[in-house]
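Cross-posted from the bioinformatics board.
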Amino acid sequence: GAVVSQHPSWVICKSGTSVKIECRSLDFQATTMFWYRQFPKQSLMLMATSNEGSKATYEQGVEKDKFLINHASLTLSTLTVTSAHPEDSSFYICSARDYPAGKQYEQYFGPGTRLTVT
Amino acid sequence: QKEVEQDPGPLSVPEGAIVSLNCTYSNSAFQYFMWYRQYSRKGPELLMYTYSSGNKEDGRFTAQVDKSSKYISLFIRDSQPSDSATYLCAMSAGNQFYFGTGTSLTVIP
């Protein structure tokens, strides 16, 4: 099956610094990538949808200047949390699909990145 | 009204029990219906998908879709401790995916 990787799997950063999370599709072309945030024992919260070569579409309430998303190639998307604060501490998960070429039910998730801001 | 409603549980059952997980939805445009399993601190993994109405069976798992009632179910037979996870339903229309809140399941040995 399709594989999506994320790096790093766990990162600790100081308040005020920026941190970049990478999401890669290893064996398929990810024309669309999604970024989610998940708090403990809560569901996935979609932050933004990015299509390769286009600007990301952010969900209501998500600050685009704080969560910078770049989807420059068909295999890589990055999420940069700028000027991180402790309330940004969360589990960030990316997913990818090949739309519309891929099957409608296909969306492959990365293993997630745990961000802790001290 | 949310696009997808799912009872968050938690649900706790003894090993060997039959588990029923359910979701309701409001958008009649949904055509694909998926169930994902997420272990703690891991990304969700696709468990099963169903196109339109009907049943689909895969081992101990059965997915059912009733489009007339806008209701989907996942049944787990002979539940095992390894089935303990959060189960999320999802539905798609075009390039949009909609997830339920997830149901936390614990299977007690």
